[in-house]
Amino acid sequence: xxxxxxxxxxxxxxxxxxxxxxxxxxxxxxxxxxxxxxxxxxxxxxxxxxxxxxxxxxxxxxxxxxxxxxxxxxxxxxxxxxxxxxxxxxxxxxxxxxxxxxxxxxxxxxxxxxxxxxxxxxxxxxxxxxxxxxxxxxxxxxxxxxxxxxxxxxxxxxxxxxxxxxxxxxxxxxxxxxxxxxxxxxxxxxxxxxxxxxxxxxxxxxxxxxxxxxxxxxxxxxxxxxxxxxxxxxxxxxxxxxxxxxxxxxxxxxxxxxxxxxxxxxxxxxxxxxxxxxxxxxxxxxxxxxxxxxxxxxxxxxxxxxxxxxxxxxxxxxxxxxxxxxxxxxxxxxx
Length: 335
Hints:
Layout lengths: L8 H7 L3 E4 L5 E4 L1 H6 L10 H4 E5 L6 H5 L5 E6 L6 E8 L6 E6 L4 H8 L11 H37 L10 H13 L4 E9 L1 H8 L1 H17 L6 E6 L2 E7 L4 H15 L3 E3 L2 E3 L2 E8 L8 H17 L5 E3 L2 E2 L5 E2 L2
Parallel strand pairs: 12-13
Antiparallel strand pairs: 1-2, 1-6, 3-4, 4-5, 5-6, 7-9, 7-12, 8-9, 10-11, 14-15
Helix pairs in contact: 8-9
């Protein structure tokens, strides 16, 4: 039986796009199209194999003579040039001219190599299992991309739902549920804060005279004023109807709280235009501060601010009253 099978270099290149063909003196005669992509910035033809590759195993193949004798030997090697891609190879001596053919593969480094060198499916033999792996990697990447997009949408939807759950739909202010979270956080962290309870004066007359649409417009304008008169880290809450609670985070003294309250009243007393009508309201306010209490808790502070608010109502409205309580020194704080 005839054992020699003639095969062209074109056929070799088609079957083994990662091959390197060496001359008897260890120089590169030709290389497959895929391997050429790995060395796109250099001219491979004529270069010593050991100038391009660092042969790690076996040690006997590190010299040209050892490489030429390594019939069927499996190589572990890497590119000398960055990014120093690791490769596997098998050596086949060529009887006719005394050279060798080395067929290379990436092994588990294929995914990195595809990214590093911009390889495509056309750079591999059609029967190479790497093609199947690349299909799986591509499919996984597509699935992961869709999962990231889905997660982003779900996260956005969750944030939007939480925001909606904590927001008063008419005014855009925080609602009672949000207020509970804010005060719980302040108490848990032991932070000082000021509390202001505000109720609109003469608001019922606006609804009765001009209708609920006018009342809604007034509430929206009031909300705008309250936000403008507070800081970014303060919280403005509509707890229902025409009642609002303002939480001032951080240390705050009575004088400043009083100034803010009077400024709010002054701005709210300016008529609010609606559909040609002038809607007039004002505000009665009750205030207190966490520093007044030995162990401040939200329910007690809200009750004290509420009592101060109604003290403002009884005193003629359009005014602010500081809650009268027993402070930690046994003195009465009032306003």
